């Protein structure tokens, strides 16, 4: 992770990004969001975060204390207009195409997370891809496949005008390089070696993007800064991966107006998010912004607060 960030103004940057991505399971590309896109997304994120934390005065979080998933937040972004700005920055479209070797990847999810000042715990390592090749004794393992789903995260501190994305203090995500190919058990927080805790994708300036394979082991770190650190983002499904295995739950959420503003590459990638003929998109008022920690033994939320119950865990 000590290699310099890739500069999208350099010839062949997308191919170099794809090479590093396949080797390490992640790559950081600088200056992916234009200043205008960054400012718009940050303003919207500030608004959504304010609404979410207002529902949680004890800062229980839904990913641990002071740590939250954006969960249903894309539905709240003004017909997803600001979230849509993350789908098709030119550099993102070029890198996604280079990684998959195809222009036919599809948007698989919208989401990300944020962590408040006062978060003092390391999140446990995990990956985000369920093993759909799970029969015992299967000769082909999930880790043997080409990348099935990649996430694109845009780290930013939620402070107007800040040029900080990930710092070493603000809850930077750690992603263990090469772990997208590992089949062994993920170590617990107590067993995790020091070098894994230091495998952070930062420091990273605001406007940069972290492209990472969701099979890679990753987790959050403490936020010892005074700022909220957010990573709004989206994910792309490989063209060969069936929607029945990893389909978007955001079908039809984009309004016609927002969809029409996407680039040709963005519209192609987000076609499952396009409004249907019987549903204009964006009409999703009343969606829940925040849900408390879920009890994995019962599949039901714990510490339920009035008005905060979602119908499923967020992303």
Secondary-structure map:
Layout: H1 13-24, E1 26-29, H2 35-54, E2 67-69, H3 81-84, H4 90-100, E3 106-115, E4 149-153, E5 156-157, E6 164-166, E7 174-175, H5 194-197, E8 204-205, E9 209-213, E10 218-219, E11 229-237, H6 256-261, H7 264-269, E12 294-295, E13 300-301
Antiparallel strand pairs: 1-9, 2-3, 3-11, 4-9, 4-11, 5-11, 6-8, 7-10, 12-13
Helix pairs in contact: 1-4
Task: Report the radius of gyration as a whole number of Å.
Answer: 18 Å
- Main structural class: alpha+beta
- Can you count the beta strands? 13
- Given the structure, what is the number of helices? 7
Molecular structure report:
The protein is α+β, with helices and mostly antiparallel strands and 315 residues long. It has 7 helices and 13 strands. Strands 1, 2, 3, 4, 5, 9 and 11 form a 7-stranded antiparallel beta sheet that branches. A two-stranded antiparallel ribbon has the order 6-8. The chain is globular and about 45 Å long. The relative contact order is 0.22. The model is unreliable at 283-315 (pLDDT under 50).
């Amino acid at each position: 992770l000590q290699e310099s960030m890739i500069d999208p103004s350099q010839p062949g940057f997308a191919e170099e990004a794809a090479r590093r991505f396949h080797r390490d399971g992640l790559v950081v590309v600088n200056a992916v969001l234009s200043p205008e896109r960054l400012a718009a997304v940050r303003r919207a994120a500030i608004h959504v975060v304010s609404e979410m934390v207002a529902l949680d005065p004890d800062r229980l979080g839904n990913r641990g204390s002071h740590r939250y998933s954006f969960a249903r937040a894309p539905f709240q972004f003004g017909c997803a207009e600001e979230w849509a700005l993350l789908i098709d920055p030119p550099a993102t479209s070029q890198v996604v195409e280079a990684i998959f070797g195809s222009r036919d990847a599809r948007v698989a999810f919208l989401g990300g997370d944020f962590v408040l000042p006062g978060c003092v715990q390391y999140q446990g390592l995990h990956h985000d891809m369920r093993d759909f090749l799970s029969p015992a004794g299967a000769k082909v393992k999930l880790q043997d496949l080409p990348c099935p789903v990649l996430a694109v995260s845009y780290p930013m501190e939620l402070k107007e005008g800040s040029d900080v994305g990930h710092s070493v203090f603000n809850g930077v995500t750690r992603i263990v390089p090469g772990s997208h190919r590992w089949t062994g058990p993920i170590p617990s927080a107590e067993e995790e070696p020091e070098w894994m805790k230091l495998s952070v994708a930062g420091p990273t300036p605001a406007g940069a993007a972290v492209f990472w394979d969701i099979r890679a082991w990753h987790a959050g770190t403490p936020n010892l800064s005074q700022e909220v650190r957010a990573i709004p983002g989206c994910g792309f499904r490989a063209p060969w991966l069936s929607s029945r295995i990893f389909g978007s739950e955001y079908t039809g959420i984009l309004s016609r107006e927002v969809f029409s503003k996407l680039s040709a590459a963005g519209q192609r990638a987000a076609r499952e998010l396009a409004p249907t003929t019987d549903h204009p998109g964006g009409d999703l008022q009343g969606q829940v912004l925040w849900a408390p920690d879920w009890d994995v033994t019962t599949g039901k939320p714990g510490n339920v607060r009035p008005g905060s119950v979602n119908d499923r865990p967020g992303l």
